[in-house]
Amino acid sequence: MTLVLGIETSCDETAAAVVDENFRVLSSIVESSIDEHRAFGGVVPELAGRAHVTTIGPVVRRALDDAGLDPSEPAIAGLAVTSGPGLIGSLLVGLSTTKALSLAWGVPYVGVNHLEGHLFAPLLESKDLEWPLMTLLVSGGHSLIVRQSGPGQHEVLGETIDDAAGEAYDKVARWLGLGYPGGPEIDRLAKDGLADALKLPVSMIGDDFDLSFSGLKTAVVRATEAHREISLEDVAASFQSALCEQLLRKLRQSLERFEVRGVALAGGVAANSALRAGVTQLAKEFGLECHLPTMAMCTDNAAMVAAAGLFRLSSGVPSQLNLSARPNWQLADVT
Amino acid sequence: MNILAIETATPACAMALRTSDGVELSFVVDDERHHTEALTPGIRDLLIQAGITPKAIDRVVVDRGPGLFTGLRVGIATAIGFALGASADLVGVTSLELLAHGALRGGVRGTLVSAVDGRRGEVFVQTFELDDDVTPVSEPIVSIPQSVADEWTKRGDAVTFTGDGVARYETLFLPLAAGAIFDQRVPPALEALRLGLDRPKEALIVPLYLREADAVANFTTRERSQ
Ligand SMILES: [Zn+2]
Known about the structure:
The complex is a heterodimer of chains A (335) and B (226).
Chain A: E1 3-8, E2 13-20, E3 25-32, H1 34-37, H2 45-66, E4 78-84, H3 88-105, E5 109-113, H4 114-125, E6 133-138, E7 143-150, E8 153-159, H5 165-175, H6 182-190, H7 214-226, H8 232-257, E9 262-266, H9 273-286, E10 289-291, H10 295-298, H11 303-315
Parallel strand pairs in A: 1-4, 4-5, 6-9, 9-10
Antiparallel strand pairs in A: 1-2, 2-3, 6-7, 7-8
Helix pairs in contact in A: 2-3, 4-11, 5-6, 5-7, 6-8, 7-8, 8-9
Chain B: E1 3-7, E2 13-18, E3 24-30, H1 35-50, E4 59-63, H2 69-86, E5 89-93, H3 95-105, E6 110-117, E7 123-130, E8 134-136, E9 141-143, H4 145-155, E10 159-162, H5 164-168, H6 170-173, E11 179-182, H7 189-197, H8 214-225
Helix pairs in contact in B: 1-2, 3-7
């Protein structure tokens, strides 16, 4: 059996997981420092870095224990670690720990792109996944539409030109005086609101696949200033509806343009109920297999990193011990 | 016992190794803040030169600061990974005490102030008494170089300064009538081997930051002023 230990520390989650060659998850541990960031309305890089360095040891140990592996001599074929994109001070904690483990155990490791990790998440949950696949990857830091012809073979069709979808949720939540992160709260409020209470623009309706959310945020600010009597629920529902509509229109466009067998949703915003419903509907309409991640697979985790690493280690060359973190590593630059 | 020491509190990336056969090696592999890139390859080369395998390491001693936050996290995360992978004990020492022990070995006696550059116009300092051994006489604190210089000018006692914090603000420390400077910029990793030998092993090593994260400091100030 070929096992890979994955390690992920690109943002506020410290995670470790063991995955086998059939993409079966033997263990997956995720510790988040989100509670330390709430008061600041966003992830504070220095606090995230501090949390990682205290958490990384216990998290890796638990991932090994849960998989029944002996920390002194685990029967693994290699390690995979997120080496970018992400917060530099966070990335290097996982990277340093991984390199040291690689040296101590005498097994290879590979630096993996975090976004490619997200693209491997459906493989962990859908065993009979068929290619090609259209994936909408939306999180607090990223928003992309990616066409995958096979594992590790991806083409970025479009991405956000300004804010990420999750970032738009956070900014609107802050404007409305809601807590951080904004996604879950707005999603909850939206269920009791009217989606057409506010007239909000659905931006970026060109025939390309690029996305944009900063105009929407500004429109929410203007509209709520003009209609002070409007309820939070109605604002939430109107905003969520406009945001999802943009994403779904672009996804629809991509499905009209390219022939695929399935459609997948990935990243933190994949937890959003309206988006899940919309993607499910779209998949049905096009007669495609629909891959919605479980809640645990939406958030950053190390199982997806291990899965990407499994592929990279088996198909390419392992990373050298002098590897640097790449905080701005684009998915399009992954080769 | 085979011991590995890791030192990343300053822009330098340093390491040392002593084997049970008494082979003692020490490297400074980089001095330009390339800890992430330089540290693990340096450890690998050190092990190769000493002729032992990574798993033969029984104890990892790491400098937990104070010093560069990023460097410390690279050093400690590396120590954590290595100790876990090699089933070795993990032990922490401080940059300021390493400098004091380095000064003692260099022949300094009497009162010594270790100072590590904390950036942003600040230094991390601690005072020691050096005779046969090193005895701390104050806690490690963060301060500004001018205050440290003023304090010792006022006291007028004989004192020696050491560390990269002194090197950086040499013009402040040199004129102190009673002061002398022991030029030592990198906390010596060889001293970490000796100090770490009889320290109890720790389950968790946390960096000695001595300074809150900026956001927290600003936030607390804002809350107070409201
Ligand atoms: Zn992510």
